[in-house]
What does this fold into?
Amino acid sequence: MASGRTVFFVSDGTGITAETLGKGLLSQFEGMNFHQVRFPFLDNPKKAKECLLRIRKAREQDGIRPLVIMTMMNSEISAMLRQEDALFLDLFEVFIAPLEKELGVRSAHTVGRSHGGTGSEYTNRIAAMSFAIAHDDGVSDADLKNADVILIGVSRCGKTPTSLYLSMQFGLKAANYPLIPEDIQRDRLPDTLLPFRDKLFGLTIAPEQLHLIRQERRPDSNYAALDTCWKEVAAAERLMKREGIEWFDMTSRSIEEIAVQIIQAINKR
Amino acid sequence: MASGRTVFFVSDGTGITAETLGKGLLSQFEGMNFHQVRFPFLDNPKKAKECLLRIRKAREQDGIRPLVIMTMMNSEISAMLRQEDALFLDLFEVFIAPLEKELGVRSAHTVGRSHGGTGSEYTNRIAAMSFAIAHDDGVSDADLKNADVILIGVSRCGKTPTSLYLSMQFGLKAANYPLIPEDIQRDRLPDTLLPFRDKLFGLTIAPEQLHLIRQERRPDSNYAALDTCWKEVAAAERLMKREGIEWFDMTSRSIEEIAVQIIQAINKR
It folds into this structure.
């Protein structure tokens, strides 16, 4: 068992759902060594055979049977795979049957419906992503007006990835506005932001972590100095507190967590 | 049943996994009307009670029992919810038990491990997202050198959202390079791209769809004219074919699907 155990993420669609849930499940088993293999678009017997051989080979090499985490609509192909000796966890199989019973209808059993390239939700997401990119780091008044949410905070505190995630996952038009030392010195919100108070959220981060992030970008600069980071973060937090801006601390939180907290805060407003 | 049925996405973490899988499941039941409610960070009895009341109210208003799709680590809170009359589908419950048995260890039963803010995979993703944003739409030689993948194609064919998705989901440094009419007229790859052939992938799209997308950006311009779109797309495809660039058609494909196909193509190289 030296090399650990192989986990296959298998799907007749993109396999993204299988991989997302699968990683969530595996993360519950700390210290175990998993080797991950993706098998998306497994939509014909030929590909299934290939996958089958890979599963077998992994079992032989690892000396232990693999895990196969799948979302398979095509039950014939699913049955083919199950000839192998592995632990199969099929997300759709387990949930589609109780849903069909509850809803009193048969499911479509078709692949890839969850992210088709046509629906209005999808178009919204694309538009929101374009918006987030175009309005990264300092934007005009007109742009702020069109934003659903505006993130403020010191440089490199996590505004950009959070905006992007909000746009991609939730279809929100997210702009972000950096608090530069001049803003912080004036100790009040930049005038540009005043009309948009109701869309503002702040982000902050521990100065030590900010220092490390800025060091990578501009090593040994004044910008990256720990002292600068301390001062900027303290002043930005003071400013946000005084102005009554709701803010979130990125320090040991992931972007996903912060994004969901922002969504919740928006819903409450 | 006029108002449809309410679906709750409930989690003691972000709930993103529950929502992603849940939407995939619901998309299999076409034409049914689902009203979606998120309940993330449900990590104490007080919040559970709130959620419980919402579930009850939804059942009374809809005249039919709600669906509750969950990822709950905390089994006490999970048990509290289950007092209500609803269909509960708990992703972790169904899969954690067989995994524990197979792996011969107990799971950590802790929340939010799948996207913690510290691991190297996470840091990679953040770096890749910054890269994708900084190198959107035309980049320098030095930047192309650092890219894991470079997407080429005519303006508005989908390069930007695809780069972003590749960076966010797979941690790839994705740059993109627009094929402008001048490149296409010369009918050969721009010199800048020549050293990076092995990282190039093309994107294309049906001219009619491109026309609609460009119309929104610059209505009734020459840039958006159907005739322009036809010519650009035809010439870009001819160029990519002649240069032996592998390319993908965004026309009725989602960004997720194209991104996974690119990942597969990279793995094959």
Chain A touches chain B through 71 residues (CB under 8 Å).
